[in-house]
Predict the structure.
Amino acid sequence: QVQVVESGGDLVQAGGSLKLSCTASGLPFNNYAMGWFRQAPGKEREAVSCINWDGTRKFYTDSVKGRFAISRDNAESTVYLQMSSLKAEDTAMYYCRAGCTAVAGGRPIQTDFGYWGQGTQVTVSS
C-alpha cells in the first residue's frame, strides 16, 4: 500500500517556526515531485510548495516565499517544510502530496495523478 504520512504540526505563536515532515512508502519516491498543500476552514485547498525529484527545483506560492523552505531526503523518502516567521494566516491543515508540478511563473500545483497524506494541523496564534 502507498502511504504518505505527515508529522510535525503544532500550535505555535506568530513569528515562530515549525518544521513539518512527510514520509512516503510503497512508491518509487525518487519518481515523484513532492508537495505541500494546505486548507483552512472554509477555504479551498491551496498549493504551498513543490520540490522536484532531486531537490534542484523548488516552487512556492507567493504568500510563503522567503518564509518557507521545502527540502527532501531521498535516502529516507522524506520531504520537509521548514516554516519561519509564521503568521495567523498560515493556520491550516497541511497536506503532503506525492505528485506536484509548477505552472508558468513558478506557481505550484498538483498533478492529475498522486497520493495524499492525511494532514497535520498547524495553528498559529496571534
